[in-house]
Amino acid sequence: MLEGRNAKNPEIIGFACSYCTFKASEMAGSLRMKYPDGVKLVQVPCSSRVDPAFVIKAVFEGADGVFVAGCHPGDCHFIKGNYFTRRKVAALKEMFDTFSIKDKLHLFWVSAAEGRRFVEKVSGMYNEIKEKKNAGKTN
Amino acid sequence: MKTGIFICHCGHNIKHTVDVKKVSEYFKRFPGVVVSDDYPFVCSEPGQDMIQEAIRKHCLDRVIIASCTPSLHEELFKDVLKKADLNPFLLRRVGIREHCSWVGDDPELNTGKAIRLIKAGLYASAHYVPLEEKRVDVVKSGLIVGGGVSGLSAALFLSKMGMHVYLVEKDAELGGHVRLLKDVWPAREDGSAIVSRMVNELQTRENVEIFTSTTITEFEGFFGNYQATLNTSSGEKKVTAGGVVVAIGFTPFDPRLKPELNYGNDNRIMTTLEFESRKDSLALPENPRVAVLHCVGSRDEQAGRPYCSRVCCINALRVGDAVKDRYKDSYVESFYMDVRAHPKGGEEFFEDTQEKGVLFTRSNISEINLGPGGVILRGEDTLFGEPFEREFDLAVFSIGMSPPVDSKRISSLLKITLDKDKFFLEAHIKLRPFDTAVKGIFIAGSCSGPKDVEESINHGRASALKLYGFLNLGYAFVDPFISWVDPKRCSGCRMCEKACVAKAIRFDEEKRIVHVEEAACMGCGLCNSTCPSSAVNLKGHMDSYIDDEIGALMEVM
Questions:
Q1: I need a labelling partner for B97 at 20 to 30 A (CA). Which of B33, B121, B257, B535 fits?
Q2: Is the ipTM of this complex over 0.90?
Q3: Contact: B420, A114; criterion CB under 8 Å
Q4: Would you state the pLDDT for residue A1?
Q5: B501 contact residues in A (CB cutoff 8 A)
Q6: Per-residue pLDDT for B223 more than 90?
């Protein structure tokens, strides 16, 4: 455990907005839903706070996957922050595509009430990345 | 830098899957970490004393508390820092319960994850700067949305505490659904009497303004100073309120959504609400055959109502009771899934109705057909596993509660969250059941989930009390998480100005740089991530914090 990263299990960093996705993750926790330990969250006030540089940094530092998650479109606590996020992530995806690492970046919407959806999304992403990683398709 | 790390066992909750001893030992070897302790309950009184003592003894300037989720006990731990004369914004909470011990089973992996999460907190907090909590003046008035029992009790309570109250009701009359009820269980009181007592008292009070036939069309501002535009029958009106209680109630389930039940096509099929208003004028034979259907629009995945509505079992029992009282030799059959006779005395009432001769059949009703002699119920007896077909003179549906029709509109107007069933979501189901995620906006009554009359009244009062506690002093402190512009770095490209939704960023024509209007800033950080020269920074969520957090999460141990 303390001896370096497990080569087979992916590490995922997620940026979760305080008002929706982070709340959903709290709910998932208190409902004792299980998801892989490789998923770790960084709390941001709004998904629009996520600078593309953070995502790039996480990938450079060795994350196998990065996700940005916020409120459903139209439900943003900061009125339309998540629309900016959507555009930023779309641009970032295009850039990632040129390096063939598009699969590493995910964007999804989870509202505060959707603890189950949060778990489904992160577990799905984790398993997908794990499969590819162990098949040797990426890194 | 002197950091103190306090790891909570949370009794069994964290300790059983995280090796807390190992974690606290691990951090002891970090430079700058002066204290690294684990403790059974950090939030308990001795736990708080321990932190205060450690801060004083070691002159700590960073405190990391690894325990439950950051939104729980935040204020409590901030107060602990304040008491020890340390700036409360030098506190870092790490959630190793909801984000670690409760979501994984493997102790070894969980211990590793806890270490990483605490490390992220440690690295991020190294960049923390003391911040000043902003004091804002608040308006001592409350806006109550919805004039049902919970809205009325909230308004009454607030006005008695000496606050100015604006009560907004979309219908022409106050009282909501309770006004229509003939006898409210268990006191058997007339619903309109309950309502009119409250309304009469409210009307005599000088500090209450009641707006009926009114809807809210616009809503803006921040805690302590919300501005709402009301669309009244005599034109638009703007009001300023310090806080809001949302009590918009519920909508009765429309049985037309289940066409197989033939509701609306025959006057021998009705809901409990209609039965109550029409029971004196019903044309029933001498010994009527009456069917009572439970759970119409409750616990029904297909109708999109998977939750229990709590009040409809009692309503169904009361129908049987009323029929038996009136017609001694009547045949009453209740078709139920489970009987959840919810409030106090409900079970006894259930037994009483059984003794009176109401027959209870556990069943699923698949369809109701109209016949010349009566309505024909077809269904399956789920105890015997047999299909049946029976004829009745009257079928009464005990309908469930649906979310209010306005919930979507109000939620986007006030920026509060809905749960998956479209009821309003509490900030925390147990610890903050009346709060929403927005400071100063509270929810009361059945708009946050089905409730009976008594509960709705209690809910209204509780929300009013919480709002009063927030506004009582006439001032409040708000989080200082607002953007700040570094004038040396700003190139005046004005990209942040275009991005800012709150219009808090202004361009200074003379200096050719932007500045932030502190009162308008919402603290989303969009400007921060838009700025190409990193000149704008969101206090409390600076680039350096998040950068190092990512670094710590990915660091090879």
A1: B33
A2: yes
A3: yes
A4: 38
A5: 78-81
A6: no
